[in-house]
Write a structure and sequence with these properties.
There is one protein chain. This protein is of the alpha+beta class. The protein folds into three domains: 73 residues, 3-Layer(aba) Sandwich (Glutaredoxin), CATH 3.40.30; 156 residues, Glutathione S-transferase Yfyf (Class Pi), Chain A, domain 2, CATH 1.20.1050; 114 residues, no CATH class. A four-stranded mixed beta sheet has the order 2-1-3-4, sandwiched between helices. It has a two-stranded antiparallel sheet with strand order 5-6. It has a two-stranded antiparallel sheet with strand order 7-8. Strand 3 and strand 4 form a beta hairpin. The radius of gyration is 20 Å and the shape is globular. The chain starts with a strand and ends with a strand. The model has no long low-confidence stretch (mean pLDDT 97). It binds glutathione (GSH).
């Protein structure tokens, strides 16, 4: 018996987990996360209908792609998706946070504003795998409505759409330049940063037809990277020597520091206030309210997700574990990509993600 992944073709985070498991050579079977599977397997174990979920041979349930990846990284001594050198590891952790928690904005924008009718059919294939296309479409519209509801709370609206598109297209061009020189972010091996980016850039922005057309037109080499990511040669490749951060990644990191980091600073402030009011033992809500952001000079507001700070905390913990030359090298890298605010970034409280729940660490 092998591990099972409950997922779906149209799901952002399923795409992230699947491409990792395939590169890692994990023996697993993917099972479509139908409503029956949610009811019998996922909700009883995780507490809510969410994918992807991995069920190990001994019945252990893993949820959250980062938890899934870390489980299989710890379980084997083979090649790792975590670079072993300071700048590459820090940059990779940051880019995982950027892909997972920020690029969901262009992913959801292009899905719902360019592919809405098509994607209802895709939701229907998961909700009612044996239904006729008409039945699937109807079921898909019901299921899809919940996801469409995320569009405005992610800050996607008439006022912000031009900026979201300008930023996304610039990102595609920057990545296209990068992938002209390197197969993956840090060389010939995919890193945890590549897995962060693949979620939005595969399931939504490559696989959704109208979005895929945009990617292939503006950035054909990004589409080729997606194709390498989803059909990998297991355990292959190496990270660049000398802890090199390719120059071509600086604009990508810079975009993260300009857009996502100031938003996360606001979320951190809100978390501090929430923790004062609620104490360490309360379970955190998925959103602490709405928090501002600026993309390409346009202001918007999106939900303030404390989970994004849990992701960032991983990078901050790594940075604060460093001393001497390693720390200096990372600080110079952050400075060069506009990330000075990360050097002094103080989490108001520590976050713990345990038993599928996010909470404030006591003490
Ligand atoms: N951070 C999580 C996110 C999982 C997630 O949000 N999955 C989406 C589908 S791609 C989902 O099931 N959303 C429904 C929900 O969370 O209510 C991960 O990395 O696994």
């Amino acid at each position: 018996m092998s591990a099972t992944m409950f997922g779906a073709p149209l799901s952002l985070y399923s795409g992230k987990a699947r491409s990792y498991l395939d590169w890692k050579g994990v023996d697993y079977t993917e099972v479509l996360a139908t409503p029956d599977i949610h009811q019998s397997e996922i909700v009883p174990a995780v507490g809510r209908p969410v994918i992807p979920v991995v069920k190990l041979e001994d019945g252990t349930i893993l949820q959250d792609t980062t938890v899934i990846i870390d489980h299989f990284e710890a379980a084997s001594e083979g090649p790792s998706v975590y670079p072993q050198t300071p700048r590459q590891l820090l940059a990779a952790l940051l880019l995982e946070t950027y892909g997972d928690e920020w690029l969901v904005i262009p992913a959801m924008h292009y899905r719902w504003n360019y592919n809405e009718q098509w994607v209802y059919g895709e939701f229907g294939k998961v909700a009612l795998p044996d239904g006729t296309p008409d039945e699937q479409r109807e079921a898909g519209m019901k299921r899809g409505a919940a996801f469409k509801g995320f569009v405005p709370v992610l800050g996607i609206n008439e006022a912000t759409i031009p900026a979201i598109e300008a930023s996304y297209e610039a990102l595609l061009r920057d990545l296209d330049t990068h992938f002209a020189k390197h197969p993956f972010l840090f060389g010939s091996r995919p890193s945890i940063g590549d897995y962060g980016l693949i979620g939005p850039l595969y399931a939504h922005n490559y696989r959704d037809p109208a979005s895929g057309e945009i990617m292939k037109r503006i950035a054909p080499r990004v589409a080729e990277w997606v194709e390498r990511m989803i059909a990998p040669e297991p355990l292959s490749g190496d990270f660049l020597g000398g802890d090199e951060i390719p120059d071509t990644l600086v604009p990508v990191l810079h975009r993260m520091m300009t857009e996502q980091l100031p938003h996360l600073e606001t979320v951190a402030q809100m978390l501090g206030e929430w923790a004062k009011a609620n104490g360490p033992y309360a379970e955190l809500p998925r959103a602490l309210g709405m928090a501002g952001f600026t993309i390409e000079g346009t202001e918007g507001e999106r939900i303030a997700a404390p989970f994004s700070l849990w992701m960032l905390q991983r990078a901050l913990d790594y940075l604060s574990s460093l001393e001497g030359d390693d720390r200096a090298a990372c600080e110079t890298m952050l400075h060069d990509c506009g990330g000075d605010a990360l050097i002094g970034f103080v989490m108001p409280v520590r976050l713990v993600f345990e038993n599928h729940k996010l909470r404030v660490e006591a003490g």
